[in-house]
Design a protein that fits this description.
Blueprint lengths: L23 H9 L13 H11 L11 E6 L2 H21 L4 H17 L2 E7 L10 H28 L3 E5 L6 H8 L6 E9 L13 H4 L16
Antiparallel strand pairs: 1-2, 2-4, 3-4
Length: about 230
Amino acid sequence: MYRTDTLERPWQDPANVDEALPDARFTDVVLNRRSVRRYLPEQPPLATINKLLEMALTAPSAHNRQPWRFVVIRSYQEKAKLAKAMGDKLERDRTADNDDPVDIKNDVARSFARITGAPTLILLCVTMAEMDSYRDADRSRHEFCLATQSVAMAGQNIMLAAQASGLSSCWMCAPMFCPTLVQTTLNLPEGWIPQGMLTVGYPANAGKPFVRKPLEEVVVYLDEAPVATPQSFS
């Protein structure tokens, strides 16, 4: 069954919250998060990883069914086994696409290094066990989308919590291209469908500065014009 108890958290009176700007600490966490692909060899304490996962559990979810499932991988043996299986699949697919063999070899090696070089992996899975079911394919497809959106929001919570804890992370979409292979390789519980994977650890570098489209390029105000031009995040 899904969780029915309440996670303890401080309550803020809306009347005492500054409407102009978010809390400075939260803003710093959001703006300083980067997708980091190189980590120090030191393994984060398992207690810290568990706190990140607790933050994931606070994410909103469709119907509050909490369809997320997480697999924590910390041993090199398991990481290498997964990286090898996924790399072999990548090589077969790229070869079938008639891509350059040298490019394929380099991409496979890069993928193996990223997966095995991360101290901790968190595989994000979705389960439909407690989601609604429908007779028609259209609504069933939409219901699956609701579940995957829920998992993605939980994953974002993990990445922000990692940043706030002095860790870095990177979202890898590769498991989406071979979910059955990942299920088999890791012997996952039945119905756990891989959706993505987070690498987590202490950063070896600051990551690349992100480039984002300006607000006016991605937002349409239907009711009124914006009050002021937002501050640049660069």
